[in-house]
What we know:
By secondary structure, the chain is an alpha/beta fold.
Amino acid sequence: MKVLKFGGTSVGTIESLSHVKRIVEGLSEQAIVVVSALGGITDKLIYTGQLACKGDQQFVEESQLIVKRHHDVINGIVPANRQQEVLDIVNPLLDELLTIYKGVSLIRELSQRTLDVIVSYGERMSSVIVSRIIDSACHFDSREIIKTEKWFNKNIAATELTNELIHATFDNMESKVAVIGGFISTDKDSGEITNLGRGGSDYTAAIIAAALDSNVLEIWTDVDGFMTADPRIIKDAYVLSHLTFIESMELCNFGAKVIYPPTIYPVFHKNIPIRIRNTFNSETEGTWITDEHRNHGVLLKGVTSIADTSLIRVKIEDTLDINNISSRVYNALSKNGVSVILSSQKHTENEVAFAVRNNEEKRAIELLNEEFITEINSMTLHSITANAEMSTVAIVGESITTIVGIEGRLLNTLGINGVNVEAYASGASKTYLAFIVASDKMKDALHIIHDTFLSKKNA
Ligand code: ADP
Ligand code: ASP
Ligand code: MG
């Protein structure tokens, strides 16, 4: 049994869907196929909701485009004898969606809960369509199988219950292919529609692959594999034939969009290989992600970035113990669910510096103001400042931190090319070095690092 995930880039058009059909029908073993919404639809579902909420009547036209896009795909690729069956399912969903938009525009309110319902229509419709394109496929509703629970203000997978439901659904599956929508889920207690976060279809596929001990998790997308850098920024980025789980985890944590970060953990835990493949070029080998260490002398694997980074600095009086302050900072953040991208190793006696995503900056500062209320009042804590105009750039490779002098060479190379490093850190996994630079220098930093350390000439 294997699990294949086709992203929005692979289910966006009639042409791409015909590749999906050919790939899945050509399989010799039983498969579970996880699909995203038609390419670009999730963004459009959100945008239309935002227009409706503002009372902008353009939402009517936008929602009609969503209807048309689904109808065009159904007309273009679903076999004629199954079209009515698909329309009988999809049209009521589209009607519901339009009614919700109308409600949002009347009330002028778009809560997170409503937005979660709105985005769910993308995968609910695409999965029905794909299941009727592929011969001998059946359809399953992910809302009945993938369960989440609350963790601070996030929804995270409720693993135990989800695993039970996956077994109950698929253990005695008779059909050769099962199609299921990725990304969407329901709360294990309330039954409300939730999701696993943007890009979350990869994660749905990994959860299913891990629960069923699939022999491989295939992520089908629109590039030939995992590359040394984002090919949209670095033109001479090239495909890596192999990565370890840890390397891929760090690359994804630091922004490589090709896999949604939480995806790696469930399959890593079960030692199930991930293979990244190109729907539009299915002959190529793609990238294998396994637990094997196949360095062949190449230690550095890729460079990635997170554009929306905020660098927060806590400045204290010399009389306070910096180690104590530092542990209180990280404790206050972690026990309240704020993820730190990087804690700076550029130590000074009176400053703790760390980076978070821009959307967590406000919460992080609130938490620190609460934690250090006494020190703020006694003026031993001088300031808590944040700069949201920052980006994180990371270079990844197994054992990178053990390469003698690498940190100095990187800092030096960036410096002589005019990129000032505000903070940096290396990971406990020894697999990355990460730097905080001004956002307007992010692309320069990516180019400099790729040219100097990852260019094919050096590989
Ligand atoms: P999907 O719809 O298949 O989930 P995504 O857009 O989420 O596709 O991810 C694939 C895209 O990720 C590619 O088109 C590529 O532009 C981008 N990308 C960013 N970084 C990398 C990288 N290091 N390797 C390969 N692709 C990358
Ligand atoms: N459709 C969702 C998104 O665009 C999930 C996914 O594509 O993985 O974020
Ligand atoms: Mg994706």
